[in-house]
């Protein structure tokens, strides 16, 4: 007889399997062109079983995006949420055009307050902007003086405050990824870079390098 703990473990494993499969299907075919029947078929469950875990296709999409964000953060080599972490994320996205497209399309559609992912994207951008701005505050980061007051000396209107720079960097990251998608060759097949240390896709342009140039222009060296 299976214990409650065993049932919970199996249910959690099944949920993770659905999320992994849905991410693959959504990233390959796009959200609207993908079907929950196909996701259920690949997982080996019925569609009603899939909806037992996720109440709707839209709820499944939100869960997929959230799980992907959590896994990316856990696997990131650069800890924290400063410019280097953002650059690492953009660089890694160069190997996943389907995922970049899924985020780009869904985030645009989610500007509609009635969209299932609207609240999730709004919270996500607020969290990312707040965390990035905190890392950009004077005195923040490794070696900072814990007694320093990062808010001392308010910047005049129009100056590049940490919050404004954080907003600009996030907007640039999103915009560069859209341009990168449009700039890719027909079929979108990535080409291996000549230099393994350089993640640029010769079929397009180096998003991370462009973003790094912007960081250098906006963020004073510490």
Give an account of the 3D structure.
This protein has 9 helices and no strands. With 222 residues, it is mainly α. Helix 1 (4-29) crosses helix 4. The protein starts with a helix and ends with a helix. The protein is globular, with a radius of gyration of 20 Å.
Task: Provide a quick synopsis of the model.
This protein has helices at about 5-30, 35-45, 45-55, 55-75, 85-95, 95-110, 120-135, 160-185, 205-220. The chain is mostly helical.
Q: Can you write the helix and strand succession as a string?
A: HHHHHHHHH
Poorly predicted runs are 141-153, 191-197
Derived structural class: mainly alpha
The number of helical elements comes to 9
- Helix residue percentage: 55-70%
Characterize the main sheet: none
Q: What is the distance, rounded to the nearest whole angstrom, between the alpha carbons of the first and last residues?
A: 61 Å
How is the secondary structure organized here?
Blueprint: H1 4-29, H2 36-43, H3 47-53, H4 57-75, H5 83-93, H6 97-109, H7 118-136, H8 162-183, H9 207-218
Keywords:
222 residues, mainly alpha, 9 helices
